[in-house]
Amino acid sequence: AKDAGRNCFSFFTPALQVAAVARMRLTNDLRGALANEELRLYFQPVVDLASGRIHKAEALLRWEHPTRGMVGPAEFIPLAEASGLIHDIGEWVFQQAAQWVKRWRQELDPYFQVAVNQSPVEFQRQGRRSAQWLAHLKTLGLSGGALVVEITEGLLLDASPGVTEQLLEFRDAGVEVALDDFGTGYSSLSYIQKFDIDYLKIDQSFVRNLKPGARDVALCKAIIVMAHELGIKVIAEGVETEAQRDLLAAAGCDYGQGYLFAKPLAAEAFDALLVRQRDD
Ligand code: C2E
Ligand code: CA
Ligand code: CA
Ligand code: CA
């Protein structure tokens, strides 16, 4: 048995072993991250391209690791999903987002919205979190419209009855739904129709190549026209230059998000940005 074990191990190259051990370590650290208050919720403005004003933000998770510094979600969300920690983390994200949007609605802008990312794994949980969330919003005195849920095309593609039910429950409560990373997956008009999506987020891979005359200009225009025909608003992701913003605005795009306007900001810094906007 000992020999068999050793043989098994020899299938792994040293590099793979190192990566696997690093993942295990990080997953272990992540287990303590919530209790040790190492998670931070950042906010990135979503700018109304016609007015230049901010009435929405996307909540983006960060992990302030005690020794490794800031760890981005691309690195730890997959670990959270694989380990099941994503459910507790998602709950924390929701609580934080709800608290901040409550402040911003009360103090600054009664229609302010915060968008929260939901990975497909989060929807698979038993016990309909949508109902719990809606109850929590109610106790905070918030309407469903304070929240936007960002989902990806993959979720709609193999939507189980449970997923469909939660999406409908959100919708009935006025929570809006945004389809994230649009254009990178199996985009299908029938899904968009069936699930009554409120926003399409054009993936940053299309926005990156926007210059006058580029093929992606035609692509973005087509997405925007199609979305508007269906009563869906469009948010462009990854807007980094004024030229991109101008092309998008000329194409009728409703909102832009990206480093041109602001990077994701710590909640207090985002709060200060909104206060400055009010006083402008
Ligand atoms: P996403 O939802 O597509 O988020 C957009 C990503 O683009 C963010 O990366 C954001 O920081 C980045 N970004 C924004 N503006 C620009 C720009 O102008 N240029 C470039 N190059 N990038 C820009 P981030 O924060 O690292 O998040 C990565 C992904 O992690 C997100 O992609 C989302 O899928 C996931 N994620 C983040 N927070 C959460 C969360 O609370 N829950 C779940 N389930 N997933 C999350
Ligand atoms: Ca997103
Ligand atoms: Ca995205
Ligand atoms: Ca709708």
Automatic annotation (TrEMBL):
Q: The organism sits in which domain of life?
A: Bacteria
Q: Please state every residue range assigned to the domain named EAL.
A: 23-278
Q: What is the covered span of the full protein?
A: 492 to 771 of 775
Q: What's the protein name?
A: Diguanylate cyclase (GGDEF)-like protein
Its localization reads: Membrane
